[in-house]
Amino acid sequence: MRIVVAVAESRLTDGVIVLRSWETADAPAIVECVDGDEVLARWLDQIPQPYRVEDALGWLAGETARGSAEVKWAILVDDGIVGSIGATPQGDGVWEIGYWTRAEARGRGLMTRALLLVSGWALEHGAQRVQLRADPENLASCRVAEKAGFTREGVLRSARWNERLGRRQDWAMYSLLPGEL
User: Fold this and answer.
1) Quick one: pLDDT at residue 6?
2) Looking at residue 160, what is its pLDDT?
3) Full domain range(s) for residue 69
4) Could you tell me where the DSSP H helices lie in the chain?
């Protein structure tokens, strides 16, 4: 079954957070969230540091990160942007989710809420598997997946080189199947 990406244009909410499509006017807010954040820089080494408006505009246009097929939402609390979550089709009914949260919003359960909303959206629109990857040493990201009900499947060892960590990076693989949400 094919998932209709245009559905992401609508807002998703659980009453605490709101997910909405990113807008070009959000570029300065993205810079405010990402630039100089040492935690994001550590785990997401493909995000340039320093991070500038031009970087944000390129990402919004789908020129960087996961590409133009990614469906991206801004995560808002009280109308302020606290992070981002995206879903990328992998083929054969599989969608992969990636996310980040600004420093001030971490540890409040907001990303777990966003992950539940996007996972539900994907499964309601035909996904047969929702998956995500996290560095096994990134305990916060692993906890988000586990709190959202994802099953840890194992570790893809030495998957890629992370320049900022100065080591090969493993990925803990997590998945969620229909009926598990």
Assistant:
1) 40
2) 85
3) 5-176
4) 27-34, 38-43, 53-60, 110-124, 139-147
Please name the residues in contact with 40: beta carbons below 8 A apart, sequence gap of 6 or more: 34, 47, 100
Which of 100-104, 137-141, 165-169 bottoms out in mean pLDDT, i.e. has the lowest? 165-169
State the SS3 of 17-34. CEEEECCHHHHHHHHHHH
* CA-CA-CA-CA torsion sign (145, 147, 151, 152): positive
The answer to whether residue 47 is domain-embedded is: yes
Total of domains in the chain: 1
Q: Is residue 181 part of a domain?
A: no
- The two structure tokens encoding residue 55: 């970087």
Report the CATH number at residue 128: 3.40.630.30
